[in-house]
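Glyoxylase or a related metal-dependent hydrolase, beta-lactamase superfamily II: structure, please.
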Amino acid sequence: MLQYRILPVTAFAQNACLLWDNVTGDAVLTDPGGEPDRLMQAVREAGVQLREIWLTHAHIDHAGAAAEVAQRAGVPIVGPHPVDQFWIDALPQQAQMFGFPPARAFTPDRWLADGDTLQLGSLAFSVRHCPGHTPGHVVFHQPEARRCWVGDVLFAGSIGRTDFPGGNHQQLIDSITGKLWPMGDDTVFIPGHGPESTFGEERRSNPFVGGT
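Here you go.
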């Protein structure tokens, strides 16, 4: 059974998340943007074994602590899609620009592409490439649990910004309507910031994509 704990980190209140398989005790951290001590403490408190780090995209508030946590835990970094490498290379500059602690650039141990599968213990997650916020943004969908980790593609009542380098508004809308909506109205999504919602609720009421 899939379990998860949302761990907002940094002044950006970015939803890093600890996911684990209740049966095997295997765990992953998604989008460790900062506060590595707190994230490692959460792993210890949950009594699970961290196996990988999964990244939706490489903005500083999502990837700033990835290299640090990976080194401490001795685990690989998985994702995002390779066209986000320019954002990873710029992590030290991003950290300086936004007042974050120093962040290290890295090369992920595994890149992701649309249609890939990720394994967490006995649980399989499907990967969808959802460009628009960044060109290499991906999301993680666990169909049996009806859950999807969407990073900064979609929020409760809003959508991701597209005014950063590599952003594209129409691509973002197409990602939401073409990749997320088919997962089903009852699917709960965990966004990069703010509260959870369902795709059905956003289809009905989100002012940016409602009715699409």
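Notes: The first strand starts at residue 2 and ends at 9.
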